[in-house]
Amino acid sequence: MKLNKPRTIGLTIAVLLGIVITWPFVMAKTERIPLDDAARAAMKDAGETFVQLSDGWTHYRWNGPAEGPIVVFVHGFSSPMFIWENQAQALGAAGFRVLRYDLFGRGHSDRPEVNYDGDLYDRQLTELLDALKVEGPVDVVGLSMGGPITVRFVDRHPERVRRYGLIAPAGFGANVPAVAQLLRVPGFNTWMMRALGDAIVLGSIEKMASNDPQITAEFRRQYMDQLQYEGYKRALLSTLLHHPMLGLGDMYERVGKQGKPCILFWGDADKIVPFANSDQVRSAMPQIEFHRVPEGSHTANFERPELVNPPLIAFLKQP
Q1: CB atoms within 10 A of CB 227
Q2: Which of 8, 132, 222, 245 is the most exposed place for a label (fewest CB within 10 A)?
Q3: pLDDT in tens for each of the 319 residues of the chain?
């Protein structure tokens, strides 16, 4: 029987395309565990704490004496709350009551089917404080994307904030990789995140952290933990599409005019949010207390706590 070559070639191409399109959904090795009641029960048995808010369960943790002044830490785009471990221990020992939590879509918090935008994260922080019965003004510190979340919270709820801090905050500009532009292509971005998301997320550690093998190993361990739960990469993609990371100068200026005490840290070796952006933040917030972290990466608070914690504690101890 004589083969129809064009038809055979077309069929072969179709089969190959089908394999390319479907293999990420069949062969994916991460996001195998639903983040459901059973998963949370196991975590609660291990001592983890959760509270249910209107958009889902939030994973949080307290450090320090119950009667201490409250400081809330807000992490960034892709990392869970482990990024604040060095601050939680130091500030807790200094007498502060430290509250850390995983943003929706990260760590052990829920991955709701919503747009991951500024309103979601403002609502999460507001409802978290209410659910934990936190009364009176608190201090809030945000890293990277946690910077705009913090500034937005101060902007919308000035009566709930006494002082605030920023570490390499987003809002003015960033070194955006080409892959991030591809992730904005409708349809293709969902496939790409499923197919290459693990490599994209884990590869970002090299830019975010230093070259210290112990630090990068800890980052990888923490990221692999949150990658095992369904919805993490979907949440990252939705955040990229819906949460503003640039062009927030007006909001920073508006909050700067409130005159609240604030402090800013920036690693001068930051490969994610350029150190030069510190000039724009300082211009928008003239009253800000600025600390340059020599050879500090994007996560200078985690890697150089000896340079961040003392001035942060001194700042927060002021009346």
Answers
A1: 19
A2: 8
A3: 444 555 555 544 443 344 344 444 444 568 999 999 999 999 999 999 999 999 999 999 999 999 999 999 999 999 999 999 999 999 999 999 999 999 999 999 999 999 999 999 999 999 999 999 999 999 999 999 999 999 999 999 999 999 999 999 999 977 666 666 667 777 777 877 888 888 888 988 988 988 789 999 999 999 999 999 999 999 999 999 999 999 999 999 999 999 999 999 999 999 999 999 999 999 999 999 999 999 999 999 999 999 999 999 999 999 9
Overall number of domains in the chain: 1
pTM of the predicted model as reported, rounded to 2 decimal places: 0.90
CATH at residue 247: 3.40.50.1820
Which amino acid does the sequence have at 269? A
3-state class (DSSP) for residue 128? helix
242 lies in some domain: yes
Residue 65: domain span: 49-316
Say if 201 falls within a structural domain: yes
Residue 14 inside a domain? The answer is: no
Dist CA 178 CA 193 (whole Å): 14
The phi, psi pair for 70, rounded to 5°, reads: -85, 130
